[in-house]
Amino acid sequence: MRKVLLALVLISMILCVFLSCAKREIALATVGEEVITASELEIKMKQQPTRFSSFADELERKRRLLEGMAEQKLLLKGAYERGFDIDEEILSRLEQQEPNLLLQLLYEREVTSKSKVNEAEVKDFYKKQGEEIKIRHILVKSEAVVDSLHQRLMEGEDFAVLAEARSLDPTSAMGGELGYFRWGSMIPGFQEAAFKLKIGQISKPIKTQYGWHLIKLDERRPVEQEPYEKVKGSLKKELESLKQGELSASFLERLKENANFTPQPVLQKDFWEKYQSAPESLQVREKQARIFTEEELETPVLSYSLGEWTLREFLEFLDRLAPMDYPDWDDTEILRDVLGKYLRRDLLLALAEGQRIDKSEAFQMRLRSVKEDLTAQKFRTEVLEKNITISEEELKEYYEENKGKFRVPAEYHLREISVKTEAEAKDLIQRLEWGEDFTRLARENTLRTHLKEKGGDMGYLKSYQYPGLYQAASKMKVGQISQPILVGGNWSVIKLEGVKEEGIRSFTEARAEIERVLVSKKKREAYDNYINPLKQEFPITINQEALEKTVDREKYAEIPIERG
To answer: pLDDT digits over 229-255, tens only?
Structure first.
């Protein structure tokens, strides 16, 4: 029996080596006997995504976040003692967060994890960015319309004229002209089709999430580029971002197709004709009540992967849409696009549950992280900060000791005439010197249409409004007219009408701000008074070497690595 037990122990040790120990991570930080791993830090980083300027910047921010996570472990000791981990409010809020966590993990599984790029891909991207193209396009909703327009273009009709007449894009007024584009600046599918064209050539119909397109290539030209080694880091980030966009678009398209939206003939014919016969002025709910019988409203009209809809449910769905998004029921393709867009969240959650993401270790870790955040915050709010009050004497004392913080800069009452050129501004100044009326000239000449009727009257200008005008006004006397001032590409002439001198806000005006400052200060003091003794009892240790390994040095290949 003893030999059997010994054998089982040995087997367990071997399994540990190959299974459990393979999952064990080096601790980035310890708080007493508790540890914080790289996975836990990664979860927190994803909760507050940010960009870093350098290796040292990312390392320092991760260190500060790690220190905060360690201190949170100490807060949780007190929270758990008070039973906050089973608090009904926290559990309810946690339940509300679960769908978002599922969607985050689904996105990472289907998109982020597949978006990494290699050196060859970056070099190819750099090569493709060596030219740019000038294009026009026509955008329409349906395949039938785009096929008809394509046929007309093939028969010789002018692309710009047809774009102006039929395109739904705002560029229709310009004959569909989109201007110049480099590779990587257009949506997938559209981009590939555009760059394959020869000058003067028109594409076949292209489908994107916006509808159906026809593209015409007007021009190609080379683009001057910086050396590859200098830009490869930023290009890698850009390419990974673009790849995520492409993967996301194709994933959502598959999601829509797999939903298998199937409208019944009765919806697309009989009910559609009946719906169209109602006055356009009626809202969806009014049409539902007036033109359909109860029996018709209970008729199944649509099936898809998550179930079946009656006409009533379909009309309730329509009622939630903006009028501009109402689909034509008899166009199956458009109907599927709209349904796919507005039911996307339900479809994604169903997919996540089908993949059992809610049973995964990654989901449980994130759920635990969110729960710890909620629990720690409740402890701070309801225990550490519960009895914080600010007396009237404290408010007044702070005001008297910090009056300089409540200084109000001077304000200047200005009239302005804005024109395109410096020569026009100088001409206006000369006319004003000869005695012409500033108000009348402003009404006749200023480019600021909202000030024309006011004769250029801008009211009292604060220091953060039009800094160039404010600075010029600060050197003028009341009644004086300025020299030309360059403002946002145009030229301004101003007249100083009046001045509100610099002053100090009264205690009443500053009271709310003072209270916020003092409450914030007392919250910090309450936190420090609680956490510092615990840090003595349960020392926080950070593994600097392990922390540095969490930063991808290659991302900052173009920037000299600083050591902190």
So the answer is: 888 888 988 899 989 988 998 899 999
Q: How far apart are CA 501 and CA 363, in angstroms?
A: 59
Token pair, residue 114, equals 């597949």
Residue 212 CB-density burial (10 A; 0-12 exposed, 13-18 middle, 19+ buried): buried
Name the token pair of 428: 């206006």
SS3 494: strand
- Per DSSP, the three-state class of 483 is coil
> What is the distance between the alpha carbons of residues 548 and 550, in angstroms, rounded to a whole number?
5
**By the 8 A CB rule, do 213 and 190 touch?**
yes
Per-residue burial over 497-534, b = 16 or more CB atoms within 10 Å of its CB, e = otherwise: bebeeeeeeeeeebeeebeebbeeebeeebeeebeeeb
| Strand partners of residue 208 | 211
- Burial class of residue 121, CB neighbours in 10 A (0-12, 13-18, 19+): middle
As a whole number of Å, the end-to-end CA separation of the chain is 58
Distances (CA, A) of 329 to 314, 333, 339: 11, 10, 11
- The structure tokens listed for 83 are 């039973």
Q: Taking Cα atoms as reference points, which of 562, 546, 558 lies closest to residue 62? A: 546
Mean pLDDT, range 287-291, rounded to an integer: 87
133 SS3 class: strand
